Amino acid sequence: xxxxxxxxxxxxxxxxxxxxxxxxxxxxxxxxxxxxxxxxxxxxxxxxxxxxxxxxxxxxxxxxxxxxxxxxxxxxxxxxxxxxxxxxxxxxxxxxxxxxxxxxxxxxxxxxxxxxxxxxxxxxxxxxxxxxxxxxxxxxxxxxxxxxxxxxxxxxxxxxxxxxxxxxxxxxxxx
Length: 175
What we know:
By secondary structure, the chain is mainly α. The protein has one domain (2-169). The chain is 78% helix and 0% strand. The protein has 9 helices and no strands. It has helices spanning 2-38, 41-44, 47-58, 65-72, 76-96, 100-118, 127-133, 135-149, 157-169. α1 runs antiparallel to α5 and α5 crosses α6.
């Protein structure tokens, strides 16, 4: 019995830690989205185009270059709004625990797009240099992948409402 209690406590701590990580990544994305959604520099005054041109000048994977040049840049304004409001949606989903898998799947796609747009270490790079160059986007991509397959239900609006409903019904929440 002691072993099963210890296992339950460990599982509870893992769930809380996983959910706290989900919440933290969500808040981070809300911070990223804030200046893009509530300001105009990124979406309307060339901020997005500036970054795409930086990616092209200093680090896009070769297969991404034509996509960035011939699709993203000609459609920069709508894509800038998609990025801004996409970051907001990802941040809200993760921070509130709403549609976590969907938000995480889009977050993973977004991080992979950023990784391949900006983290190319060069043709002659060694294998470890690909991972080193991509560390800033790779870590978040791995978090999103974990959120897609995991169940980060603690610290979420859904869990709060479920516990509240159980209190009203007179039942107890099972852990």
